[in-house]
Design brief:
Blueprint lengths: L6 E7 L2 H18 L3 E6 L2 H5 L16 H4 L3 H18 L3 E5 L2 H13 L6 E4 L11 H8 L2 E4 L5 H5 L5 E3 L14 H7 L8 E5 L4 H22 L3 E5 L5 H8 L7 E3 L2 H10 L2 E5 L3 H8 L3 E5 L3 H10 L7 H6 L6 E3 L5 H13 L1 H16 L8 H17 L4 H8 L1
Parallel strand pairs: 1-2, 1-3, 3-4, 4-5, 5-6, 7-8, 7-10, 8-9, 10-11, 11-12
Helix pairs in contact: 1-17, 4-5, 8-11, 9-10, 9-15
């Protein structure tokens, strides 16, 4: 149990997907302890909606890829120093870092290097099952606890002594399966038989810049294969301007949406999706919208990943069902011709579509955790760790000191 005084949680994320998790976590913490919650830290739109006044603009941090990060390193390192100084000055009951390990881990490492004993919790496990397995041991030196989204992840961290729990994947409570396709079509003047395609070019500036031109060519090729269609493009504020400008040149008279409810209505109204590789694949699976996944990075980053990746699939649906269901066209395979052909097959082949949907349902079932929403399970875990520290129980910290 948490004592009567307010509980102060310092939450840090460096990218939009982590911001969505952070927003849900804050809402769940409020559901558990009401007005006895104080928050501070770094986030974006979703965390701001829950009352967080971010110390740093999220756009400074939402960067991915070795070649993309290097030019921004001075800014990122300065932001790390500012974040560490703020956490030390504010003295929260716990620091929760979410995803974006390149930024979050530097914050955690710097706090420990300065002798801080604040409880440190990380939310979203790094993909040690895919590459760089040594990261699990590094995390165990800094963190008191790790909360994972995927059911197969805890053993990778528990074997190196890091306390770990599977809390369930937030896609379960996202609402992606409750979209209203008829409402979306009516709101945007679409007839019931108009072919609608969802295009998701990503949420980080670098990935969006690389994928937007490719997606434009894909759509022009697809028009030759399947005939006319409309396009809907869900996006986020950090990249909305770039996406809007590019989509204006695409076929399909693009409809842009930013709110999650509008995105899920668009999913329900669509026939197929073209998506940047990432967690959105699970939203699409929950919405039962057949998808093709694409990704490009800087060639240097792609060459590095090709050498170190231990898995040949990165799409979470494929990983959860352990077979290649969703077409993953990554790196050199991310060509307009291949993407357009895969999309055309999903538009027209009912047997292929049915195989996708069966696999999507299987993947989603594996992500539920005991019927409690993932954000509430995460909130309960955070509050339990804070209560243990307030009560003088600090087993995980003792274990970390011993390592």
């Amino acid at each position: 149990m948490i004592a009567n005084e307010a509980t102060f949680i310092f939450i840090v994320t460096g990218e939009p997907s982590g911001d969505a998790l952070g927003g849900a976590l804050i809402a769940a913490l409020r559901q558990r302890i009401g007005g006895k919650l104080k928050i501070a830290g770094i986030g974006g739109e979703r965390m701001r909606e829950q009352g967080l006044d971010s110390l740093i603009p999220l756009g400074d941090l939402a960067i991915m890829g070795v070649a993309e990060v290097l030019p921004r390193a001075p800014v990122i390192l300065r932001r790390v120093r500012e974040t560490v100084a703020a956490a030390r000055a504010m003295r929260p009951d716990a620091v929760v870092t979410i995803d974006s390990s390149g930024f979050s881990w530097r914050v955690a490492h710097a706090l420990r290097r300065r002798g801080e004993t604040l409880p440190l919790i990380h939310y979203v496990a790094p993909m040690v099952w895919a590459w760089r397995a040594g990261r699990a041991r590094r995390m165990a030196r800094w963190y008191d606890h790790l909360m994972t989204l995927l059911p197969f992840e805890p053993p990778y961290f528990e074997r190196v002594g890091l306390s770990c729990s599977f809390v369930g994947h937030p896609v379960i409570e996202s609402g992606a399966d409750r979209g209203d396709g008829s409402h979306f079509r009516a709101a945007h003047g679409l007839a019931p038989d108009d072919l609608l395609i969802t295009v998701l070019p990503g949420s980080r500036a670098a990935e969006v810049r690389r994928l937007l031109p490719i997606f434009g060519v894909v759509l022009r090729r697809l028009e030759d294969l399947v005939g006319p269609f409309r396009v809907v493009v869900p996006t986020v504020g950090t990249v909305a301007a770039a996406v809007t400008g590019a989509a204006a040149e695409w076929p399909g008279d693009a409809i842009l949406v930013q709110q999650p409810a509008d995105k899920y209505d668009a999913f329900a109204a669509s026939r197929v999706a073209l998506a940047a590789s990432g967690s959105v694949a699970l939203e699409l699976a929950l919405a039962r919208l057949p998808m093709v996944v694409a990704y490009r990075l800087n060639p240097l980053t792609e060459a590095l990943l090709d050498r170190v990746l231990r898995v040949r699939q990165v799409n979470l649906v494929n990983l959860l069902v352990d077979r290649p269901v969703v077409p993953e066209l990554l790196g050199a395979n991310c060509t307009p011709a291949r993407l357009a052909a895969s999309l055309a097959e999903l538009v027209g082949d009912e047997q292929v579509r049915a195989a996708h949907l069966r696999s999507y349902d299987e993947a989603v079932r594996s992500l539920a955790a005991d019927g409690v929403s993932p954000s509430l399970r995460a909130a309960d875990q955070v509050l339990e760790l804070v209560a243990a520290r307030r009560g003088g129980v600090s087993g995980s910290t003792t274990q970390r000191s011993a390592r």
